Amino acid sequence: GNLAADTGSKPEPARYEGPYALHLDGQAAPLPQRSTHVGNRFAYLAGGRLVVPGPNKPAWSLNVYFWSGLAPTDRDITGTLLAADNGETLAIGGKSGHAGKLVYTAADGTTLVGKADVKPRTWHHLTIDRSAGTVEVRLDETTDLSGKTGESKPARSFGIGGGAEASARFE
Question: Structure pTM?
Answer without folding.
Answer: 0.87
